[in-house]
Design a protein that fits this description.
With 478 residues, the chain is α+β, with helices and mostly antiparallel strands. The chain is built from 12 helices and 13 strands. The strands form 4 sheets. It has a 5-stranded mixed sheet, with helices on one face.
Length: 478
């Protein structure tokens, strides 16, 4: 199990027993490799793919699960080498050449297609003025990101190239979430850079070692591992933890009267006050908690102050790559867990932090149940325009980031165009040297930027005061 806590001596007995049981699975032996499927075995959807496929059946043609990225390519580009690099990545990673049919009512089936030659459409913008190029680039990126995918027939990914000037290009890449997640983007960047350099120099695809397993091997292994009693035990935990969920967060600054849809996602970025990260880490260590847990407790406190709700349920994305064999694969593994906190009575921040610590360990230990499965199991009341189980997500991002190399061509991530919001507010924190960088994605139909600025300021104020004196009552921190 990844390091969930930095010290476990102060955990509650039940939570410590749970953590010890999880850690014991890795003591003294390596994790058994995921087996390869026997030839001729019918592939199955992973749990995450099944969830995505069901969403598509409910809302056919939705673009809510389009994942759009843009890469700036600097240097003298060999388009042929770039095409061959993309072609090899699609060959290596099955999800990028898979379509999804119906095996039975409510059950999807993956159909893996043979690799195909890849050709990029190239749009030359070099004759435009700089201002015109920027406008056209944004328009092309928006159009490219918004086009629908046909999961039943494929393909599930597409790429296009914009030539800005002779030594600067933008590669537009959009893929359906059923084949791709945030971790996958870092795998793609690393492989694209290595393969491009190899093809441009005439070395070919030997720049990368063959993958130990395919995504279909992982899906079959996951299905076998998480069946019957194991899955039922996790569902039973969530039923106990989340029933009933009645409180709805109406944050101060939320637009009134909107009950349908979230609208496009807008973004807000900031760097938290210097030193807050180290202070939070120190306070967490005193309670056997990680930096994430301390930040989460402060964020839950800020939400309490801005909503007046003591009982909060916040979504936390998890990478879902619990087995090391999955780390180098492109595909969808990500899931979300829910951490519920109750800040009632005279509870102090230290009390709340211990509560968050215990709930987080339990949640991460029961992370395999997909949210769609939880919705079916819990049957929460539906409110138009609201997600069933949580409206706000929070994470301290630890996905390994690709660092661009120093070759003749440099690949850099470029901010994507606005897409459909997935939840009301999603907060990502990243450690940037001694600072904490914060990125908020929010539903523009529900909030304007001023409301998000207020949320971030409240979060900073709570974190600063709580780390200065963890024994302050939560009710006094906002």
């Amino acid at each position: 199990m990844p390091e969930l806590v930095e010290r476990i001596g102060q955990l509650s007995p039940a939570t410590r027993a749970l953590l010890d049981r999880q850690l014991s699975l890795r003591r003294g032996r390596a994790e058994p490799s995921i087996p390869r499927m026997e030839p001729g075995t019918t592939p199955v959807l992973s749990l995450a793919q099944q969830s995505m496929w069901l969403h598509e059946q409910i809302d056919p043609g939705t673009t809510a699960y389009n994942r759009a990225s843009s890469l700036r390519i600097l240097g003298a580009l060999d388009i042929g080498a770039l095409e061959r690099a993309i072609e090899e990545i699609v060959r290596r990673h099955e999800p990028l050449r898979t379509s999804f049919s119906m095996a039975a009512p409510g059950v999807g089936r993956p159909v893996v297609h043979e690799p195909a030659t890849w050709r990029l459409d190239v749009t030359d913008l070099s004759a435009l003025t700089p201002v015109e190029r920027i406008a056209r680039t944004m328009a092309e990126a928006t159009r490219f990101a918004a086009a629908m995918f046909d999961l039943a027939n494929g393909p599930v990914c597409r790429a296009s190239l914009l030539r800005l000037v002779e030594r600067e290009h933008i590669l537009l890449f959009t893929v359906h979430h059923i084949a791709f997640d945030g971790w996958s983007m870092q795998v793609l960047l690393r492989e694209l850079e290595l393969l491009y350099a190899a093809f441009a120099s005439g070395e070919g695809a030997t720049a990368l070692r063959p993958l130990a397993i395919r995504y279909s091997d992982y899906a079959a292994w996951q299905r076998a591992r998480l069946s019957g009693a194991v899955l039922e035990e996790q569902i039973a935990y969530w039923k106990t933890q989340l029933s009933p969920l009645t409180a709805r967060l109406n944050l101060r600054g939320r637009k009134q009267g909107n009950t349908v849809g979230l609208g496009p996602a807008k973004r807000y970025e900031a760097v938290l006050r210097k030193g807050l990260g180290e202070s939070a880490r120190a306070v967490g260590a005193a309670e056997g908690a990680t930096l994430f847990m301390t930040l989460f407790a402060a964020f839950a406190t800020a939400l309490r102050g801005l909503s007046g709700v003591d009982d909060t349920a916040i979504g936390v994305p998890v990478a879902g790559r619990s087995h090391p064999d999955a780390e180098g694969l492109i595909g969808v593994f990500v899931n979300s867990v829910i951490i519920r906190t109750k800040a009632v009575g005279e509870i102090t921040f230290a009390d709340l932090l211990r509560q968050v610590r215990d709930r987080a360990i339990e949640a991460f230990s029961n992370q395999d149940v997909q949210l769609s499965e939880l919705v079916r199991a819990l049957r929460p009341p539906r409110i138009e325009g609201r997600a069933e189980l949580f409206q706000i997500a929070f994470q301290l991002r630890n996905v390994p980031r690709h660092v661009p190399g120093r070759g003749l061509v440099r690949f850099e991530e470029f901010p994507a165009s606005d897409q459909q919001a997935k939840c009301e507010i999603s907060v990502d924190l990243t450690e940037a040297g001694e600072n904490l960088a914060l990125h908020v994605e929010y539903a523009s139909a529900l909030f304007d930027e001023q409301a998000i600025v207020q949320l971030v300021k409240t979060f900073e104020d709570v974190l600063e005061r709580a780390t200065r004196d963890p024994n302050l009552r939560v009710s006094a921190l906002t």
